[in-house]
Each structure stands twice: as structure tokens, then as C-alpha cells.
Q: What sequence folds into this?
């Protein structure tokens, strides 16, 4: 009974979380903590004390380092195939008709033309928007080097950048349609924009939620 009263579950959980904070997203950490609480509660129902149930449950979930390795493997199986599809569509789009009779690669090399128009200010919004697409392309080109950031602050940055890039690309296509140029948009342009949507989807938290590591 004395051990029971001295044991502080919230304090024990705080110490357990400390080893994982900054390495997992808050949502993922909350989910893992919920699993730990549930498993400890099950052990208490089997007759173990609070201290014993927490010790057994935390031991069965594994050491922080091992848990992170296992968690990363599981997340990779869900995210990487989508990211690979995203990169593949992005690369292919440059070799397909993109706008009118131009390929995606030809459109990409029109920076100089649009830059001169963009210098005239907001009145040339389409040209300004085109130049902003350079930022989206930079995000896509950098994403393979950031793909290891499955959780934490880096993952949040990539997720935010991917979302912003998706908005920029699809807003550009919408603008072309509103200006009456929609019929000139070819398959390459749609594949290019779709690649950003898939990149963003691949970074959605808990994409593999149903595959959260289970207790032994």
C-alpha cells in the first residue's frame, strides 16, 4: 500500500514522454501514451499495483531508442511509396505536353520571359504567380533529402511546405482556367500539380495510424 501511495503515474508518464519529445509529433506521442495507459490499466485489472503495471507496460513497449526505430520503420512503409509516386510523376511531367504545344521542360525555362513581365508589378499577377512556382519546385527537389524527417519539427516543416506548394500549383491552374486558357493545359501540367498533392498527402500525420506498434 505504501508503494501504491508513493507512485505518481503522471510523473512517471512525464519522464517516459521526456525521452520521446521532439522525436515524434505531439499527436503520435499522445497516441502512444494512450496505448501505454490502456495496457497499464489492463495489468492493474490483473492484480498488479500501479507501479508494477506501469513498469511492465513501459518495459513491454520497449526502450525509447528501440521504439523510435520500430516506429520509423512502420511510418516509412506508409509514406515512402507515396513519396516515390510523387517524385516519379514530377519527373515525368517535364517530358510530357504541359501547356499548348510546350513540354513541361520548355515551360520551366520560360523564367526570363515571365520575370520581365512580373517586374511590372501586381498588374501582371499571372507572371508573378509563375515566378512563385519556383519555390514549389524547390520544395519538391529538396523533399528527397528531407524524407528522413518522419516526425518532429522537420516533418512539420516539410508538411507545411508541401501544403503551400500544392496550393500554389493548383491555384495557378485555376487562374489559367479563369482567364480562359484552361483548354491549353495539357496532361503534363496536371501530373506536375498532382505530384505536389501526393507529396502533401504522404506527410499527413498518422497515415499509418492503424499500424501503431503494439505491446508484446
A:
Amino acid at each position: 500500500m505504501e508503494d501504491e501511495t508513493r507512485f505518481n503515474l503522471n510523473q512517471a508518464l512525464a519522464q517516459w514522454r521526456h525521452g520521446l519529445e521532439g522525436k515524434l509529433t505531439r499527436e503520435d506521442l499522445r497516441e502512444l501514451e494512450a496505448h501505454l495507459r490502456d495496457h497499464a490499466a489492463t495489468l492493474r485489472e490483473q492484480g498488479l499495483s500501479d507501479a508494477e503495471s506501469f513498469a511492465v507496460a513501459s518495459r513491454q513497449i520497449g526502450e525509447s531508442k528501440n521504439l523510435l526505430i520500430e516506429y520509423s520503420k512502420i511510418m516509412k512503409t506508409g509514406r515512402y511509396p507515396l513519396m516515390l509516386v510523387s517524385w516519379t510523376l514530377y519527373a515525368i511531367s517535364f517530358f510530357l505536353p504541359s501547356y499548348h504545344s510546350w513540354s513541361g521542360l520548355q515551360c520551366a525555362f520560360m523564367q526570363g520571359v515571365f520575370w520581365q513581365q512580373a517586374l511590372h508589378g501586381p498588374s501582371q499577377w499571372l507572371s508573378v504567380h509563375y515566378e512563385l512556382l519556383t519555390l514549389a519546385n524547390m520544395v519538391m527537389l529538396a523533399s528527397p533529402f528531407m524524407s528522413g524527417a518522419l516526425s518532429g519539427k522537420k516533418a512539420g516543416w516539410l508538411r507545411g511546405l508541401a501544403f503551400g506548394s500544392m496550393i500554389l500549383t493548383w491555384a495557378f491552374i485555376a487562374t489559367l482556367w479563369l482567364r480562359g486558357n484552361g483548354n491549353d493545359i495539357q496532361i503534363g501540367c496536371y501530373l506536375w500539380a498532382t505530384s505536389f498533392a501526393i507529396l502533401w498527402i504522404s506527410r499527413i500525420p498518422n497515415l499509418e495510424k492503424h499500424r501503431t506498434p503494439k505491446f508484446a
Observations:
- The chain is about 70% helix and 0% strand.
- The radius of gyration is 24 Å.
